[in-house]
Write a structure and sequence with these properties.
Layout: H1 3-35, H2 43-50, H3 53-59, H4 65-73, H5 82-95, H6 102-115, H7 120-126, H8 128-149, H9 154-182, H10 192-204, H11 208-214, H12 220-229, H13 237-252, H14 260-273, H15 277-283, H16 285-308
Helix pairs in contact: 1-5, 1-8, 1-9, 1-10, 2-9, 5-6, 6-8, 7-8, 9-10, 9-12, 9-13, 9-16, 13-14, 14-16, 15-16
Length: 309
């Protein structure tokens, strides 16, 4: 496979997953405002999770629901906005039409056309929940199409690798923002506001129901353990890294090449798999997640060197 094709299909997976994660965070935050009426502050953690809060404050003078929705959804200057992600996914898909199924191209192209409808911004403000649900459904549709219509070959492994690494990064960011940034005062831990926000974190990664099948109480330790160390939940950090490692090995091992990114991913995954939540919290959850995020950033750079440069 040409490195150009591998690069495009890897980022196709990342951009589609990123669009879904942004939509999830926005939709949950809109629901959260029903429990915290009059609060504009909850948008700051969403901007922090997206990783471009500084860019927002350069473009907008204050945080408001309308400004946040515009920046996170339709701002073409924001590379992580839903519109930018779908646009980038479509451009990557267009460049590799011969490597993906026609069903996948049609699904991406149709949603791209919908996002560029001149009336779409009015529709979002009138019915935001319906719109952001449609973004999540679009992402889930493309995942199903990829799974069911593409050969499970190099191309499939690259798109799955991109999806899993993006999902791992977003889950770690969401957990870190709540644990380290969201609460205004440590004295609020354990109060109603704290429980509402932890439930919002679970809902933002569709973990609310699965979490409550395992745990009876919503506590910071239980939520952190579920989102970091669960072997079964498909959006936990451990699960995503284990799946990414499988895809990475499928890409690398048939060629019997020693790939540095395989070693790096295995190291990140094994360090997490053999940790307990008590050890992680004792050493500092924020510090642990920050270290993992730096490792994932370095891994992404190494993947580019190993496969795409």
């Amino acid at each position: 496979m040409l490195s150009r094709v591998a690069d495009s299909i890897y980022w196709l997976g990342r951009y589609i997953e990123r669009a879904e994660n942004v939509a999830r965070s926005i939709d949950v935050n809109l629901q959260l405002q029903l429990d915290l009426p009059g609060e504009e502050r909850p948008w700051e953690p969403v901007l922090q999770t997206a990783g471009n809060a500084d860019d927002f404050f350069k473009a907008y003078s204050h945080v408001s629901t309308e400004n946040a929705l515009k920046f996170l959804t339709f701002d073409k200057e924001n590379p992580s906005s839903i519109l930018s992600c779908v646009d980038s996914a479509r451009e990557n898909a267009r460049c590799i039409r011969e490597s993906i199924s026609s069903e996948l191209w049609i699904a991406i192209n149709q949603f791209y056309i919908r996002l560029n409808d001149p009336e779409i911004q009015k529709q979002v403000l009138m019915s935001p929940h319906d719109f952001y649900s449609s973004v999540k459904e679009f992402s889930q549709l493309t995942v199903g199409i990829i799974q069911g219509t593409m050969n499970h070959d190099l191309a499939w492994n690259f798109v799955r690798l991109g999806t899993m690494l993006e999902r791992a990064d977003q889950t770690s960011r969401i957990l870190d923002v709540k644990y380290y940034i969201l609460l205004p005062d440590i004295s609020m831990i354990g109060l109603v506001l704290d429980t509402v926000q932890w439930n919002a974190v679970l809902k933002s990664v569709s973990a609310f129901e699965m979490f409550h099948k395992k745990y009876s109480n919503v506590t910071p330790q239980n939520v952190a353990e579920f989102l970091l160390l669960s072997e079964l939940f498909p959006r936990s950090l451990r699960y995503c890294l284990e799946q990414a490692e499988i895809n990475m090995k499928n890409i690398s091992f048939p060629q019997k090449i020693n790939i540095e990114s395989v070693r790096l991913l295995g190291k990140i995954r094994s360090e997490l798999a053999f940790s307990t939540i008590d050890e992680i919290i004792a050493s500092g959850l924020h510090e642990k997640i920050e270290r993992i995020q730096k490792q994932l950033g370095y891994l992404s750079s190494q993947i580019w060197k190993d496969f795409f440069s």
